């Protein structure tokens, strides 16, 4: 039965050849000789009944069938890597779950997809998610027995190695009948005189709104204050004013027909990073990769050329 399926080395060899463009480079990466690698690739294609690679000039490139198979091979090898990581976790005797501390505005618009991807990659790995607002996050991170923290930078988690992941621009959330609703990128000076729903003191978004207005020698006009960006957007959708928000909280309101979002010309930004106790662990590298990919899809939706 096993003879029906290609071995993992052959799959990895094909994947590396497709990316590097030469059998020699792929063979070197795997510690194989070039003749052995060429025979393995030929055997793989015979077994599959597919032509996976063709020569284009001095390089080997995937055929149409090769591109389709490459996508499936990537998924299969990622699952195998997750399986080995699960085995290492079991071997190391880790029974307690990974404890991850996440800034509150990321909990709904981003983390469900990230957690689903982590479960797929590491089926036996348990992750406990703690959610905290930014003004309490550092204190909690240093008091609790965390394995990692995902939040805006900087945050002082002295026990960890901190890695920047990506930046994100703030958006303006507004009711769909607002006079600025058709503006793709609004200037700060165009916001002067329009009422804002603000968040309470101690939250980053409040500070960013004040800083943004101060750069134009003005102060924001506040219609009311609320306890979170989440509720500020709900109030904005009800017509009570504009709300400064991050793309991930905006994504949590994607189904709200009463809201629309626009970018801000030279507006404030957020810097996101991951702090990990042991960045060498496989799950830590994987979660960083997933966070960048999943966040990138959301940022492209809200910060791309379209609305």
What does this structure look like?
The chain has eleven helices and 13 strands. It is of the alpha/beta class. It has three domains: 90 residues, Winged helix-like DNA-binding domain superfamily/Winged helix DNA-binding domain (Arc Repressor Mutant, subunit A, Orthogonal Bundle); 105 residues, 3-Layer(aba) Sandwich (D-Maltodextrin-Binding Protein, domain 2), CATH 3.40.190.10; 97 residues, 3-Layer(aba) Sandwich (D-Maltodextrin-Binding Protein, domain 2). The strands form four sheets. It has a five-stranded mixed beta sheet with strand order 4-3-5-13-6. Strands 8-12-7-11 form a four-stranded mixed beta sheet. It has a two-stranded antiparallel ribbon with strand order 1-2. Helix 2 crosses helix 3.
Summed over residues and divided by their number, the pLDDT gives a mean of: 86
Going by helix content, strand content and strand pairing, the class is alpha/beta
Radius of gyration: 24 Å
Spatial strand arrangement across the major sheet = 4-3-5-13-6
Tally of structural domains = 3
State the low-pLDDT regions, or none.
none
Within CATH, the superfamily of the largest domain carries the name Periplasmic binding protein-like II
**Major beta-sheet overview:** 5 strands, mixed
CATH class of the largest domain: Alpha Beta
Distance between the termini: 52 Å
CATH architectural group of the largest domain: 3-Layer(aba) Sandwich
Q: How many helical stretches?
A: 11
The level of helicity is 40-55%
Q: Kindly estimate the percentage of residues that lie in beta strands according to DSSP.
A: 15-25%
Order of helical and strand elements? HHHEEHEHEHEEEEHEHEHEHEEH
């Amino acid at each position: 039965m096993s003879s029906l399926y290609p071995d993992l080395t052959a799959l990895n060899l094909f994947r590396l050849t497709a990316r590097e463009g030469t059998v020699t480079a792929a063979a070197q990466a795997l510690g194989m000789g070039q003749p052995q690698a060429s025979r393995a690739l030929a055997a793989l294609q015979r077994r599959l009944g597919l032509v996976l690679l063709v020569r284009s000039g001095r390089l080997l490139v995937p055929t149409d069938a090769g591109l389709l198979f490459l996508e499936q091979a990537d998924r299969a090898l990622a699952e195998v890597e997750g399986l080995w990581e699960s085995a290492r976790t079991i071997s190391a005797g880790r029974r307690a779950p990974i404890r991850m501390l996440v800034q509150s505005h990321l909990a709904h618009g981003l983390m469900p997809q990230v957690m689903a991807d982590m479960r797929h990659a590491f089926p036996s790995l348990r992750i406990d998610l703690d959610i905290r607002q930014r003004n309490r996050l550092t204190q909690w991170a240093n008091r609790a027995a965390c394995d990692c923290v995902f939040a805006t930078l900087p945050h002082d988690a002295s026990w960890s190695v901190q890695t920047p992941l990506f930046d994100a621009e703030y958006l303006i959330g507004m009711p769909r009948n607002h006079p600025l609703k058709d503006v793709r990128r609004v200037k700060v000076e165009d916001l002067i005189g329009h009422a804002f729903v603000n968040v309470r003191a101690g939250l980053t978004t409040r500070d960013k709104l004040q800083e943004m207005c101060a750069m134009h020698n003005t102060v924001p006009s506040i219609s009311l204050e609320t306890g979170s960006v989440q509720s500020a957007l709900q109030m904005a959708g009800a017509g009570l004013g504009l709300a400064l928000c991050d793309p991930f909280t905006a994504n949590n309101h994607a189904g709200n027909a009463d809201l629309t979002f626009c970018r801000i010309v030279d507006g404030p930004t957020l810097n996101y990073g991951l702090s990990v106790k042991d960045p060498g662990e496989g799950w830590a590298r994987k979660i960083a990769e997933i966070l960048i990919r999943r966040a990138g899809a959301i940022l492209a939706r809200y910060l791309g050329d379209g609305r």
